[in-house]
Amino acid sequence: MTTTSTARLLTALHRFNAAHPWDHNARYHPWLLRRLPRRFGTALDVGCGSGELARLLGRRVREVHAVDADARIVAMARAATDGSVPVRYAVADASRELPDGPYSVITCVAALHHLPLADTLVRFRQRLAPGGTLVVIGCARASGFRDHVIGLSAVPLNALLGWVKNGFRPAPRRPVSLTARTRDPAETFAEIARTARRLLPGARLRRRLFWRYTLVWRAPGAPGRAGDPPGA
């Protein structure tokens, strides 16, 4: 296949993806939940968006604090959350302020690249209870052969999942979670991994499909009554 043909194919796939959007972050919610205890005390969800993950966490916890800098999407999250799950939403700039904690679990999905990396990881570490678990689903800037291969392999898979979810017809509407303001990531995966392992000794990071990476870290100390989270 020529370079021109490859470029045309990628353009066509990107157009199909744009017309058949689906929530890449929600795909990782089941994986994220498997990293956590079945029951735990309190959780902090940073960059909660429209609240899908916060509501899932609310089925396992005494209380979830969910924060996002976008007042409009926090209002949507509140409207979509009934009283059956203990979720408290707040508009907050996580680069400047976070609830004090401590928390048994902290989650951050597709939001860390909007925040100062090192300072935010330190804030997470300070607010995590002994034995607590931090799980990040993040976005990194592609750099190097490996990143580009993984990114290119995700393009047809992304189109396939868009078709499975929407069929050949364009999606009737974009998922609410895709309406929040976004910014391209500045750090590469290698840069993020170096910073995370320096500030969070023992952190486990891995590149993932659909332009994501994962970070799992357990704070030192004995966990609470919730028990130990399973491995990553």
Characterize the biggest β-sheet. 7 strands, mixed
Order of neighbouring strands in the sheet with most strands: 3-2-1-4-5-7-6
What is the element string, with H for helices and E for strands? Answer: HHHEHEHEEHEHHEE
Structural class, by secondary structure, is: alpha/beta
Poorly predicted segments: 154-163, 174-179, 225-232
How do you describe this structure in short?
The protein has 232 residues and is α/β, with parallel strands linked by helices.
List the keywords.
single chain, 232 residues, alpha/beta, Rossmann fold, 2 domains, 7-stranded mixed sheet, 22% strand, globular, disordered C terminus
Write the layout of secondary structure elements.
Blueprint: H1 3-19, H2 24-27, H3 29-34, E1 40-46, H4 52-57, E2 61-68, H5 71-80, E3 87-91, E4 103-109, H6 117-127, E5 128-138, H7 145-166, H8 189-199, E6 204-208, E7 212-218
Parallel strand pairs: 1-2, 1-4, 2-3, 4-5
Antiparallel strand pairs: 5-7, 6-7
Helix pairs in contact: 1-7, 6-8
